[in-house]
Amino acid sequence: MKKSTPPASPAVTRPDPAPRKRARGRRPTAESADLRATLLDAALACFVRKGIAASSLRDIASEAHVTPALVHYYFGDKAQLQQAVVAERLLPVVAQMRAPVIQAGDGDVAALVAGFVHGIGGVVAQHPWLPTLWVREILCEGGALRDMMISQVGPMLPKMMAGRFAAAQQAGQLNPDLDPRLLMVSLIGLTMFPMASAPIWRQLFGADDIDFDDLRRHTLVLLDRGLELDHAK
């Protein structure tokens, strides 16, 4: 009797290997770098318009027309996103303001003052969001950037300038009745405050014809000659 052959086992279909996950630390593509920059700009826009405390990751995602998960993917959480905005958007602007001051020669008080006034005016013309953010997040009580102003921006610009004013005063090149620290406070008051309050005084005085270049010239004339009259005329 012929032995029967057992039926062949059915072929086993193996599933396709799962797609490999993107490795962490991979070099970003141009597209991902552009998207990251877009998210930083969206965060800055929300911070200026609503304030840092009131801006959520969902708000920032909506501003950038992406999902909140994508914001989380790039920055982790809001605190890390805020740090990135400070490091990559705000501190470079402060460095721009500092450059003309650094270029002023030691002991040249007029050049130092002019460098500061022109530096702030030029930066605000390029980044009009700065005065609003400064008022909301640094001047106002509880502002999210006040500590950053004291610990990071302070040594970069205001304290550095006050030190140079003090040195000029010791060299007999600055009025001895002035306090170098309050001179720096006065300079900020004559520059950032008018720029931050521009929507108010422009409407109040019908002064839409005054731009930031006019404001810079006015400030320098005020600092140079004050309110004295020319009696020779």
Automatic annotation (TrEMBL):
Signal peptide start and end residues: none
Residues in HTH tetR-type domain copies: 33-93
Region annotated Disordered, chain positions: 1-31
Keyword terms: DNA-binding
DNA-binding region: 56-75
Tagged with keyword DNA-binding: yes
Species for this entry: Pseudoxanthomonas japonensis
Keyword DNA-binding: yes
Protein's recorded name: TetR family transcriptional regulator
Transmembrane segments: none
